[in-house]
Amino acid sequence: xxxxxxxxxxxxxxxxxxxxxxxxxxxxxxxxxxxxxxxxxxxxxxxxxxxxxxxxxxxxxxxxxxxxxxxxxxxxxxxxxxxxxxxxxxxxxxxxxxxxxxxxxxxxxxxxxxxxxxxxxxxxxxxxxxxxxxxxxxxxxxxxxxxxxxxxxxxxxxxxxxxxxxxxxxxxxxxxxxxxxxxxxxxxxxxxxxxxxxxxxxxxxxxxxxxxxxxxxxxxxxxxxxxxxxxxxxxxxxxxxxxxxxxxxxxxxxxxxxxxxxxxxxxxxxxxxxxxxxxxxxxxxxxxxxxxxxxxxxxxxxxxxxxxxxxxxxxxxxxxxxxxxxxxxxxxxxxxxxxxxxxxxxxxxxxxxxxxxxxxxxxxxxxxxxxxxxxxxxxxxxxxxxxxxxxxxxxxxxx
Length: 399
Ligand code: NAP
Ligand code: MG
Description:
The protein is an alpha/beta fold and about 400 residues long. The protein has 3 domains: about 1-115 and about 285-340, Isopropylmalate Dehydrogenase, CATH 3.40.718.10; about 120-135 and about 175-275, Protein-Tyrosine Phosphatase, Chain A (Alpha-Beta Complex), CATH 3.90.190; about 140-175, no CATH class. It is built from 14 helices and 18 strands. A 10-stranded mixed β-sheet has the order 4-2-5-16-15-6-7-14-12-13, sandwiched between helices. Strands 1-3 form a two-stranded parallel ribbon. A two-stranded antiparallel sheet has the order 8-11. A hairpin with a 4-residue loop joins strand 9 and strand 10. Helix 6 packs parallel to helix 7 (about 210-235) and helix 11 packs antiparallel against helix 12. The mean pLDDT is about 95. Bound molecules: NADP nicotinamide-adenine-dinucleotide phosphate (NAP) and magnesium ion. NADP nicotinamide-adenine-dinucleotide phosphate binds near residues 76 and 319.
């Protein structure tokens, strides 16, 4: 069987622990037998980040900016314990944070839906994709305790009275920038066009007449001047409403939209949506820059607990679905940009094979408790057996 050729390289970003083990196994079992993989490889394993003083992370972000598409393995974000475990010279920053800042991108999280694993909310039949604005607001806020007296918001233009305190209290100042909000809007509109789904956005602009209203206005302005025609051509909609109305409508909906959220709303709602759909191991994530560059990854971490069992020689049942879908997402994007239909077809079949294996009852331990299907008792397998089962299914679909 001849292998599929690629035209342009895919930026491949390797990572840590159990997901690094899965990474190699996925490539060996499911990718390189079928594709002449052309990748620009960056090793973001913690040892190499230490060795390169974290320059490797910046280089990988620059490569995504250059080639347009990357796929990333989960990586350790060091804390004090990791500093001693890996003998680090510094507590290196989160690679995801560094890459996101370099590309000025927005993260979209989407669940992988499988027949047999029902969302807790019955009506949600299609994925709800959450886009979280990852800049500013309360995450970059300043706060103070105050005593009796007048507190002011002191700006270069003005002094705004916050409150004439009659006793002790608290205040908080938050900010955002027009530039960051516009980038967020463009990433959302680009991604909606890319996957042809409606985009919803919501704030509390009726109460926050300057702050939240600015978000609403910038989204509308960017939409009207740059995207309205393309949305109408693509047959999709941009829908703005108040955040409480959005929550009520989402609960009653059947899903299928992208829901753009301000930073705090996205923090809260992404955990809610992930929980409703079942498992973090079935959640994919894509970083989209306002210029239309894409980085695909799994939403979960490096699965440290499984890795230490694996190192002790114990077989582990780690779920590789989100990492496989990170690869298929990136390969499909490359296929689209470089016009390689056979590569897109392969990635579609790999996704179908992965889903089919679970639907037939073969799965990792994390899913077994969630799986309910008439006449099928789930069979729990180890991570490598799961990949072999997908390989066999893929073989059937490809011939
Ligand atoms: P985690 O790696 O997501 O794992 C937490 C737990 O969730 C696991 O112990 C496991 O539960 C379950 N789980 C997650 N992914 C799974 C999978 N694919 N298959 C089966 N079970 C899965 O989170 P963490 O343990 O908090 O973080 C570990 C490391 O990952 C940290 O160093 C953190 O910095 C890093 N991290 C990286 C990223 C990223 O690169 N995007 C994101 C988050 C965290 P059981 O143990 O109960 O089986
Ligand atoms: Mg959170």
